[in-house]
Amino acid sequence: MAKKKQADSNIAAENRKARFNYEIVDTLEAGLVLTGTEVKSLREGKASIAEAYATEEQGELWLINSNLPEYLQANRFNHNPKRRRKLLVHRTQLNKLAGAVQRDGMTLVPLKIYFDDRGMAKMELAVAKGKNAPDKRQTIKERDWNRQKQRILKEG
């Protein structure tokens, strides 16, 4: 599943812990169904998807437990910050994702929400497998070794 690289300035929310807590198997791009105040709140960059996950229910993909805070200038026309949001993917992708979750025990984890070239809100969604404690320790060791290697090469 190919995806385009987006500029870092267009990222509205990022789940930085996902790559530490999960082993990423595959990624895909999904559209988001949002209301007007949710888009404005996203553009302010105050959204949180750290505890969020996606699930397939009745033939549709839903983002659960994401937090888009209320847009302060919207008054009474505001949205519910923790509401379930529909994700837009092709039917074949949805079937593939649902099969991976049911058959292999994978999880659908949002990695980031960003705005594409046309200004549409998109989400990078990952099919992931949870890491256990030894795997997490190994990740920490590799990260520390890479930092130390960079310091040594920089010092010359």
TrEMBL record:
Taxonomy, superkingdom: Bacteria
Annotated function: Required for rescue of stalled ribosomes mediated by trans-translation. Binds to transfer-messenger RNA (tmRNA), required for stable association of tmRNA with ribosomes. tmRNA and SmpB together mimic tRNA shape, replacing the anticodon stem-loop with SmpB. tmRNA is encoded by the ssrA gene; the 2 termini fold to resemble tRNA(Ala) and it encodes a 'tag peptide', a short internal open reading frame. During trans-translation Ala-aminoacylated tmRNA acts like a tRNA, entering the A-site of stalled ribosomes, displacing the stalled mRNA.
Location of this chain's protein in the cell: Cytoplasm
Stretches the record annotates as Disordered: 130-156
Compositional bias segments (type: Basic and acidic residues): 132-156
Keywords recorded for this protein, A-Z: Cytoplasm, RNA-binding
Cited SUPFAM superfamilies: Small protein B (SmpB)
InterPro entries for this protein: SmpB, SsrA-bd_prot, SsrA-bd_prot_CS
Chief location: cytoplasm
Similarity section: Belongs to the SmpB family.
Name of the protein in question: SsrA-binding protein
